[in-house]
């Protein structure tokens, strides 16, 4: 079995600016009952992950609540988290319960790296971690309730989680 490895997708300064422009309305708007705490950097990171996946797959940006990208007839929802180090296989990917019924075909997970010298900035790119078919994620994920300590981290909302090394590799995402 192949060892799990994240795939780094580098973005140019222009692509980073495009990620911000695509998400500007969401990034700048205060959302009610948002589990991210309306953290603008976290919301921007979501769009950086989305753009990195779009670039790697050569997908079409849809940016709808139900899914982010369209590629070879697949509706792809990109889930991103900020991180301060290279992701490891024993880390978790999650889908918050409030998003668990999105009308997508695939969940694709990314991690967006904070700048090592300025935690209020992001590196130009994202790690693509893997993916899972929406149809079978509930069978493969474990449920975590809000406030639960999972991986030494208190969950801000009910979520479904899976280890990164249990995701399907990006290169197995086919049309």
**Topology as a string of helices (H) and strands (E):** EHHEEEEEEHEEEE
Q: Give the overall form.
A: globular
The side-by-side strand order for the widest beta sheet comes to 1-7-6-4-3-2
The helical percent reads 10-25%
Number of helices: 3
Q: Give me the count of strands.
A: 11
| Rg value | 15 Å
Number of domains: 1
* Largest sheet entry: 6 strands, mixed
Q: What is the percentage of strand-forming residues? A: 25-35%
Give the class from helix and strand content and strand pairing: alpha+beta
Which consecutive residue ranges, at least 5 long each, have pLDDT under 50? none
From the N-terminal CA to the C-terminal CA, the straight-line distance is: 23 Å
Mean pLDDT: 91
List the helices and strands and how they pair.
Blueprint: E1 7-10, H1 13-28, H2 40-57, E2 60-61, E3 69-71, E4 74-83, E5 92-96, E6 106-113, E7 125-133, H3 137-140, E8 142-144, E9 149-150, E10 153-154, E11 159-163
Parallel strand pairs: 4-6
Antiparallel strand pairs: 1-7, 2-3, 3-4, 5-11, 6-7, 8-11, 9-10
Helix pairs in contact: 1-2
Describe this structure in words.
The chain is α+β, with helices and mostly antiparallel strands and 175 residues long. The protein is 22% helix and 30% strand. A 6-stranded mixed beta sheet has the order 1-7-6-4-3-2, with helices on one face.
């Amino acid at each position: 079995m192949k060892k799990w490895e994240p795939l780094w997708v580098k973005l140019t300064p222009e692509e980073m600016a495009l990620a911000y422009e695509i998400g500007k309305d969401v990034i700048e708007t205060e959302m009610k009952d948002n589990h991210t705490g309306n953290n603008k950097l976290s919301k921007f990171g979501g769009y950086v992950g989305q753009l990195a996946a779009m670039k790697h797959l050569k997908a079409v940006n849809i940016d709808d609540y139900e899914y982010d990208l369209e590629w070879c007839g697949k509706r792809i929802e990109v889930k991103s988290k900020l991180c301060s180090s290279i992701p490891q296989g024993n880390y978790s990917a999650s889908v918050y319960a409030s998003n668990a019924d999105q009308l997508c075909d695939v969940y694709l997970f990314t991690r967006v790296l904070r700048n090592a010298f300025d935690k209020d900035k992001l590196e130009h790119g994202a790690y693509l971690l893997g993916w899972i078919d929406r149809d079978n994620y509930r069978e493969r994920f474990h449920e975590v309730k809000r406030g639960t300590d999972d991986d030494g981290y208190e969950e801000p909302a009910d979520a479904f989680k899976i280890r990164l090394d249990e995701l399907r590799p990006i290169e197995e995402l086919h049309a």
